[in-house]
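Table S2 (text version). Query chain:
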Amino acid sequence: MLAYNHVPCYLIYMKRISLIVIVLFAGFFAPAHFTMAQTAPIVKLAVPYVSEVPDGRWVGSWKNACEEASITMLQAYYSGQKTISIASAKAFMQNLFNIEHKLWNSDANTDTARTLMLITDDSDFNGRIVEAPTVSDIKAELDAGRPVIVPLNGFTLGNKNIPFLASGSGYHMFVIVGYDGSTGEFITNDTGDTVNGPGHRYKYARLMNAIHDYDSVDKKTDGPSRVIFTYPKLVRTPGSHRVYFLSDGIKQYVSGPSVFSARSWSWAWVNVVPSSWLVGFKDGAVINQK
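Corresponding structure-token output:
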């Protein structure tokens, strides 16, 4: 017969109860990531979609209109528009074509520097070029409600819905409008995808590897990894009626409604931003009606 130590039943029950109490106590005070699975965030900004071929025909300037379409989408977004008609999009894009031809005798392969110039001078929002951005950098902008414009090597991107010419540069540009943390994907408004452009998803790694600026010297899309972080031109902070005009890292107080009238500004263009973000801009001269 095997010998064993007899343990009274009531002691077994007390040990079991103690163990249950310890587990519950630990679960109550443990960090959330130890007690339950966290729901990965999905962020998707309401950016109206614009195709680089609004009529679906790859002809003339519309064969290379991804940059203009990207600017047009964010012109609508920062102006408070939920949608934009094809006619309005084409008119805005045509104006950008005209400006590009006047400045550079071409509207094709507009790199980030030229795209930023168009944004600064000919749109109602701002931008700044950021070198070698990370996934976290881009997600932080999206969390703050600021879409990101990205230049890309279309061959590396690998979207079969976009008809890149094998003999061409493969230069492409679109807007990142969100991300899905549960799948590890960026959500984009892909200007060149006529099948699934609005909300098209790319894995983080695929999109990040494809980010390259256009090199006007070798005529290839093999430039550095850089993007355009965008932000509004007219802002106020929560609970405040003080409106500021932003440009080149400077904020200028707008003295009153008369300035809006004189400059044909719309109150719908005023975006609400956190005070903690606005303090990063230096104070400039007050804008008065002249």
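Notes on Table S2: The chain is about 35% helix and 20% strand. The chain has two domains: 42-232, 234-283.
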